[in-house]
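Bumping with the actual sequence this time:
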Amino acid sequence: MAEEQQHEVKRSLQTRHLSMIALGGSIGTGLFVASGSAISTAGPGGALLAYVGIGIMVYFLMTSLGEMATYLPVSGSFSTYSTRFVDPALGFAMGWNYWFNWAITLAVDISTAAIVMQFWLPHIPGWIFSLIALVLIFTINALSVRSFGETEYWLSLIKVITVLIFIAVGVLTIFGIMGSSATDLSNFTYKKAPFVGGIPTILSVFVVAGFSFQGTELIGITAGESATPEKSIPAAIKQVFWRILLFYILAIFIIAAIIPYTSKDLLGSSATDIAISPFTLVFKKAGLAAAASVMNAVILTSVLSAANSGMYASTRMLYSLSKQGYAPKTFGRVNGRGIPIMALLGTTVIGLLTFLSSMFGDRIYIFLVSASGLTGFIAWLGIAISHLRFRQAFVKQGHELSELRYHAKLFPFGPLFAFFLCVIVIVGQDLHSFATLDWQAIGVTYMSIPLFIVLFFYYKIRYHTKLIPLDEVDLTKHHFDD
């Protein structure tokens, strides 16, 4: 019965859900707030270069994931691919790494929701808002896959409409149709612009841009519950690429054109400082008085959207880990509505405990958040490696590329480019600390790397796994979730 229900669930997510989920996953506080600090750090040219570079890399990763997901649509996505195409130890480490990342991100998001709500209701304790947000997100995910998809669709749509309005208002402000006077493009040559601080600062902004784009890989997680993955995934990838480049590049161009990189307001841009979001600053410059309150509402939907996606992704990853024998069997149980309910409860408990640690022990909370810092980039590395191995094994075993429903673009350049750029971004995460030999800062920044290595070698040593020979890679299309 559970398997029958689960089979029904897999027909729940449509193309419009997938494209909006992948798009919504990448449009959040990284664009609405952190983009300001990127411009102030590397100047308008440096910020644009970083976002274009990461955008292109993410596109290649998406096509790699798309090729594998249309061939083998599974809920565990890249953890399952790492297991089958590379080494079970890599699949184990990738799965737990990604689950940990989203479980901690869930806690960060519900904490941020409280901060955003206190913009309007400063006298109500923040934990009340966080608890309401957690119960809301849990309920949405517990009802059905369709309720998750629909909620994410509409939350993402709000963000997309906001960006479109912002672009329109920004263009009108640049030409002086709105606001007091035209700014033209003078800020691109103001003082040290367009490039400020050289390669090291641009590299540091690559990290900011990378965090902004994380979430696009959710399309691989949702593939296992797509109605027609061979059609919906390629369509979603194609749409998302153009939308991301359009929204991110145009939005950052407009911010840089209207607000000089030397503005002190941009320096203050952080995920919790809503009043000086670059979007708020541009709307105010255009003469829209209620900008701060409107953007606060949009950022609230953005945070809830991220929490919703995080709950879904971590639940499906824990479920997949159980199915592969990497986690207790109880997390593989599916209820009558096709929801992996025990995995959902397990993830919710970890999210709640992490949130509580922020109230009772800041050190534990900061440690957990720091430990999850680079896990998204590690997941991207795993996707690139898995795709290289998948394609090599596919050809080695005598298959024709025409058998694939979707072909990744510019193979093998795409995954190799993504792999090397991810390594550069991970290493360049905090070069300043290496220069000053600040070992505490280095430990906090790069903590997720030794955690991943420990997971990998724990499994490898315990079960004596080896790199799977190409001619032994399992390319059969039986479903892991069945």
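The tokens above came from a reply further down the thread. The two ends are 12 Å apart (CA to CA).
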